[in-house]
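User: Can you predict the 3D structure for this chain?
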Amino acid sequence: MSQCPIQPLMDFEAFAHGIPHERVAELARDHSLLWEADEHATGGHWLVLRQPEIDHVLHTPELFTSNFGPFLEDMPASLIDPGRRSINLMDPPAHRSYRSLVEYAFRPGLLKEREGLMREMAREIIDRVIERGECEFVGEVAIQLPMRVMFNLLGVRPEDEQRVVTLTNAMLFGDDPEFAADRAAGFNAKQALDDFGAALAADHRASPRHTITMEVLEAERDGERLSDRDFGAFFTNLIGGGLDTTRNTLSWAMVEFVRRPEQYRMLQSDPNLLPGAVEEILRFRNPVAYVRRTATQDLEFAGQRILKGGKMVCILGAPGRDPEQFERPDEFDITRNPADTRRRHRTFGGGPHFCLGMHQARMNLTVMLDEISSRLDNLRLLGEPRHARSIFMDGFNELRLGFDRRS
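Assistant: Here is the predicted structure, written as structure tokens:
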């Protein structure tokens, strides 16, 4: 069995300043699959470090199931109860049926229809900070557009928005004391989001309105409709994937542009580079560090003996820094071919569970980067960014950003 040498990768100290991409690349040079013990969950796990093996795990749910959740830690039994019908914990064919209930809402054609509204939102977000010449970028800018778009689509009432954001942060950053007391509190936040989603469904039944929530509740699959409880788990998946991922990616974009002002000036002078900038930041700073799958049986894989129940931890950023996939993988370069970059990175995962909102995420990033680059000059950090304590999400608790108004 190939074992992780010296310090384990999945360690909070190793992730203190974000995903340790150099360490990942070092391990991936010598291993496609690597076992390591851990202190954060029961037993140990397999690191899956190269694109072919990552793709195989994510595309083969009959061998590597999602039923036990995406986290390294084992989720409480109450949250993985099949009766909860959370699509994040389903395998095909049930997963396909439930996913189709909302997939239409994120098609590129429908995204184009809402682009005008998104641009209005983006202008309002920048309008609120531009005269000050500085902001706390994570809360005041980065999360604002994905939050407004998702809440608008789902029909979340304004008075409930902050509660949803707070619970989402606690669920995804359960190891960070600024968001949750401990990982158990993070799982409790997941339960609370499920409950909120169920209440949102009941609210829509009592006061129907034109939202994705209403359309999902009215849709039928195999002669059945979702119950309020079913929708609650559905809601949590949509919110969890729609808020913090874009927030973190956009925040990292600012850090990289501060470090490389020539790249920012290139974007300002040529808006045609926007697609390349979006794909490059997705490649270079993928917000989700890993996803877990669990072996359904004993098997041989990548030269290793995997036992039933083995945790397969797919390191999603590894292909994006792989020299076999990208020339100069450790250079941030927005002039890369966006179609080629999109095809080769695995930031949005793969297989049946590839990110449902990836088109929306790209649109969020495109609209905000366009608004920022056209209106803000001389980006600068006003202090050391404070990283969130997490080995699952790569983001910041605080990012103080200074800028000048572009003339």
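The two ends are 60 Å apart (CA to CA). Residues 21-405 form a domain with the Cytochrome p450 fold (CATH 1.10.630.10).
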